[in-house]
Structure formats: C-alpha cells, structure tokens
C-alpha cells in the first residue's frame, strides 16, 4: 500500500519550550543521506542527488506536546576520503542517524562500523537511529528487515526503514529521535554537558559544540 507523505514538521508552535540539538547523518556514499535530509527539511526529492562534499548543514524543527525541538543537521559525505573528517561533525552531537541502503548488504556492514565508532567515540548518551533507506525498492532487498531490527535491539538503537522517495517514515524517524532526547535539562550549554540540548526560549544561542547556528535552507 502506498504511503501518504506526512505533513512537513516545521510548523513550530510558539507555545512551550524550544530546545536545540545537534544531529549528524552518517553512512556509505549513495545510501540517500542527503535525500532524507532534503525530504525532511524541504519536503522534496530529487532522483539524481549530487554527492555531498565534506558536509552540508541545515536546520528543521519538530513539535512535541510541550516542546519544539530544533535540529541542527550535519549531513556528512559518505566517500572514504572524507571519513577522517567525520569526528569533527559527530563530536558533541546529541543524536545521529546511521543510514544504509536495503538493496546493498555492504552498506549495512558499513553502518554497523559507524555505530561502533559512535558508541566508542561520540557523546556517551548520544541517541542513535538506524535508517534502512530505499524501502521503495523492496523488490531488490538484500538486507532483511528482521535482521536489522534485531541488530538495533541488541545495540539500543532506534530503527526504521525509510524512503526519501515516497517520504515513508522520514518524518517519523526524526520525531522518534526528538521524543527520546533529554529535554528536562535543556538549559545546559557547558561543553562538559554534551548531551544537553540548548533551551533557546530565553534567547540563548546555538550549542557551542554544534559548530554554528543556521536557518533552514
């Protein structure tokens, strides 16, 4: 059954608290990281997406019951030559989405490597989600859904299969991350509190670990 594209999540309510979190996307080249971000931020999909060079930065908000969560999103390049730059982007991140292509087993193996690296080197309480992208190509599936779900359970990851093309579960995975992020200590901005979001209802700036503060592009 075709999935109806959900409403874009940028209709932030002025009510309640506004929290800001740094989120990084990691994964092999051509798994659809940039397409997921483009779908989430702009509600668009381009059949032929140019490869990211270094990293791209965008912002988007999602509304929870009493909190508006602003994501500062770093979309990293998947090519091996950019791997050494990745720690610069996931350092201080409160959330990460590790993306693989369900039609390519090698990208799933690479995703597991990224998860291990995040568990070893990123913030201790980082929220990690695993996204099996290109679910619209299920007839070419090489990675079993249950296998990825079991791996995610074993490693404490959020998991969804997504499709940037049809928009299936794209907003849902960001919303699930927003729900899981700690917002009760959202005023924390000190560098020694990397898992705290920044409460910007009082005019605070971006997370100092977040690199910069930008507007939606």
From TrEMBL:
Region ranges (Disordered): 187-217
Matching InterPro entries: P-loop_NTPase, Small_GTP-bd, Small_GTPase
Keywords: Nucleotide-binding
Positions with biased composition (Gly residues): 202-217
Regions that span the bilayer: none
Domain of life from the UniProt record: Eukaryota
Family affiliation: Belongs to the small GTPase superfamily. Rab family.
Name of the protein in question: Rab5
């Amino acid at each position: 059954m075709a999935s109806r594209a959900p409403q874009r999540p940028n209709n932030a309510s002025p009510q309640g608290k506004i929290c800001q979190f740094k989120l990084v996307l990691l994964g092999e080249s051509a798994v659809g990281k940039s397409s997921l971000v483009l779908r989430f931020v702009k509600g668009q999909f381009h059949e032929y997406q140019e490869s990211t060079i270094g990293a791209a930065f965008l912002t988007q908000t999602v509304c929870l019951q009493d909190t508006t969560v602003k994501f500062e999103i770093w979309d990293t390049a998947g090519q091996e030559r950019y791997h050494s730059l990745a720690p610069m982007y996931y350092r201080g991140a409160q959330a990460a989405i590790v993306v693989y292509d369900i039609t390519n087993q090698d990208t799933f193996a690479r995703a597991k490597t990224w998860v291990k690296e995040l568990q070893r080197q990123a913030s201790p309480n980082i929220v990690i989600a695993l996204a099996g992208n290109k679910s619209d190509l299920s007839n070419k599936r090489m990675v079993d859904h249950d296998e990825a779900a079991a791996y995610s359970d074993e490693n404490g990851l959020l998991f969804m299969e997504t499709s940037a093309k049809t928009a299936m579960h794209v907003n849902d995975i960001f919303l699930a991350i927003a729900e899981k992020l700690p917002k009760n200590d959202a005023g924390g901005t000190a560098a020694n509190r990397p898992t705290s979001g920044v409460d910007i209802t009082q005019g605070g700036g971006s997370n100092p670990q977040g690199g910069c503060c930008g507007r939606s592009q």
